[in-house]
């Protein structure tokens, strides 16, 4: 028996080096050296490159807003979606270990006893010691051990483990992608909050102006220079300005609620703190250098490549089913009718074999699985390429918006200043009786629209920066995986889990 066991194990080790199916090869796309929308006019200096790398790591700090930085840190620690993604990584790692366990012998122990009865209606029923044919009942005691060991000759287990390892990597990139989305949403909400507060200030100023206009109209009417129509128009304008401010207050509350949830708090927890009006964050400078290779930082592209690796390994798993499977089963099950007989030599029963199975006729079941795995791998490769193209488009779009919105905001700022000046002059002319009140209303509404448009353009400038940093895959580096687990220790639940590696 020893000789046979050595033979089986030696044969297994010699054959275990073969893995069927293709090995993963990254799909290298030809990338342009840079982006077409970049503003680089000269090669970046080492200092500029180092500054850009720092911005990529913690891009939110480039807005010079301590409140935003504090919120980002709170979201990284407290966001529940991010913690869920972390648990999925831990789950994938455990599944990888589960797949790897197939490399080792699977051993189980058993013991039992009870009464059995054999049928007398079967011809030539084999008589058992101590159990004559006229006594079909018997007591049985048994104990033993069963084991099985699959020799991974054609790499089915290796390919399964390889696929699971790539799945772990994909889940890591998935968490990074979620982190980027979280930070982008948080920053955009925060910018919207501050710009809405600016719009409330604009609305409050316009209410004051409308109140001044109403007071002026009443005074002119008292002096015999106005009429009740003008008073009604001024009162209606004041009421409209007061009403326009209320939805802005609602938006501030709603955005504050959204930010609270993003950082893992109940809605309203941060409302009082966020309602304190702060200046708008500073728009950071455009990155000093932007080579196209920066696209490799995007977690969605990295995840798509890992998914392609998973699908490639699954081809090997499917192909291995076309080849023989080699298993070494071991069974040791002594049995007897009495306890004193259970450990005698005559009670011994064991089995040690080398089993091989080869699929013969299955109606195309296994070849179809191979074709399906190949198609899935090709789809994953094409999805990787599409993800790269989408990433480039998003970066180019973000760059174009960044550059175009600079001039757009400048023009709106000039329009707001000119409108304010026209509104002030119109009120003076009306007070002098040189123009009608309708002209005053027209200039005031133009001023309000221009100021709101300028505020929204400032919001777009801030969002352009956030979108560019997100598009180039910045913000996930340097953020470690936070591990958490339920307060249940496996070792305290099962003595065998503490004594043996199961």
Q: In short, what is this structure?
A:
By secondary structure, the protein is of the alpha+beta class. Helices cover 60% and strands 9% of the residues. The chain has 12 helices and 6 strands.
Descriptive account of the structure:
By secondary structure, this protein is α+β, with helices and mostly antiparallel strands. The protein has one domain (2-23, 54-112, 152-323, 358-499): Outer membrane efflux proteins (OEP), CATH 1.20.1600. It contains twelve helices and six strands. It has helices at 2-15, 46-57, 66-78, 80-100, 156-222, 228-262, 271-274, 299-320, 365-431, 437-471, 490-493, 495-499; strands at residues 106-117, 137-151, 325-332, 335-336, 350-352, 355-357.
Largest sheet: 6 strands, antiparallel
| SSE topology string | HHHHEEHHHHEEEEHHHH
Structural class: alpha+beta
Pick out the low-confidence regions.
1-16
Spatial extent as radius of gyration: 38 Å
Give the end-to-end Cα distance, rounded to a whole number of Å.
Answer: 28 Å
The domain count comes to: 1
Strand tally, please?
Answer: 6
Assign the CATH topology. Answer: Outer membrane efflux proteins (OEP)
Q: What is the percent of helical residues?
A: 55-70%
Query: Quick one: CATH class?
Result: Mainly Alpha
CATH architecture: Up-down Bundle
Mean pLDDT: 82
Continuous helix count: 12
CATH superfamily: Outer membrane efflux proteins (OEP)
What is the approximate shape? elongated
């Amino acid at each position: 028996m020893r000789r046979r066991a050595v033979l089986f194990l030696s044969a297994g080790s010699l054959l275990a080096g073969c893995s069927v199916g293709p090995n993963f090869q990254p799909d290298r796309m030809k990338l342009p050296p840079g982006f077409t929308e970049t503003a680089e006019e000269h090669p970046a200096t080492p200092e500029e490159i180092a500054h850009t790398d720092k911005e990529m790591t913690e891009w939110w700090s480039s807005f010079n807003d301590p409140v935003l930085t504090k919120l980002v840190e709170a979201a990284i620690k407290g966001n529940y979606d991010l913690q869920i993604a972390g648990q999925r990584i831990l789950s994938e790692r455990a599944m990888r270990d589960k797949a790897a366990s197939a490399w080792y012998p699977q051993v189980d122990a058993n013991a039992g006893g009870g009464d059995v009865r054999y049928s007398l209606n079967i011809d030539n029923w084999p008589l058992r010691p101590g159990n004559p044919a006229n006594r079909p009942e018997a007591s049985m005691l048994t104990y033993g051990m069963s084991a099985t060991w699959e020799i991974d000759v054609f790499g089915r287990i290796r390919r399964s483990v390889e696929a699971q390892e790539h799945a772990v990597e994909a889940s890591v990139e998935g968490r990074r992608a979620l982190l980027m989305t979280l930070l982008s949403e948080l920053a955009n909400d925060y910018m919207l909050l501050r710009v809405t507060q600016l719009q409330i200030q604009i609305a409050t100023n316009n209410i004051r102006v409308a109140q001044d206009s109403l007071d002026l109209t009443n005074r002119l009417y008292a002096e015999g220079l106005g009429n009740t129509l003008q008073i009604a128009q001024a009162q209606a304008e004041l009421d409209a300005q007061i009403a326009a401010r209320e939805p802005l207050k609602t938006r501030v509350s709603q955005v504050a609620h959204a930010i609270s949830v993003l950082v893992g708090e109940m809605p309203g927890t941060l409302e009082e703190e966020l309602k304190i009006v702060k200046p708008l964050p500073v728009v950071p400078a455009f990155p000093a250098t932007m080579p196209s290779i920066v696209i490799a930082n995007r977690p969605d592209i990295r995840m798509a490549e890992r998914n392609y690796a998973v699908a490639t390994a699954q081809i090997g798993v499917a192909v291995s089913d076309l080849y023989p499977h080699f298993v070494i089963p071991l069974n040791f099950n002594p049995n007897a009718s009495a306890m004193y007989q259970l450990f005698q030599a005559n009670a011994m029963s064991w089995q040690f074999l080398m089993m091989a199975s080869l699929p013969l006729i299955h109606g195309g079941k296994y070849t179809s699985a191979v074709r399906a795995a190949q198609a899935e791998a090709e789809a994953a490769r094409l999805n990787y390429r599409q993800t790269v193209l989408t990433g480039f488009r998003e970066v180019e779009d973000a760059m174009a918006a960044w550059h175009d919105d600079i001039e757009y905001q400048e023009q709106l700022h000039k329009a707001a200043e000119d409108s304010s000046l026209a509104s002030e002059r119109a009120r003076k002319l009306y007070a002098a009786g040189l123009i009608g009140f309708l002209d005053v209303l027209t200039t005031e509404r133009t001023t309000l629209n221009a100021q709101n448009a300028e505020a929204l353009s400032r919001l777009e400038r801030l969002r352009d920066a956030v979108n560019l940093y997100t598009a180039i895959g910045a913000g996930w580096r340097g953020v470690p995986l936070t591990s958490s687990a339920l307060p249940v220790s496996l070792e305290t639940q099962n003595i065998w889990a503490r004594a043996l590696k199961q």
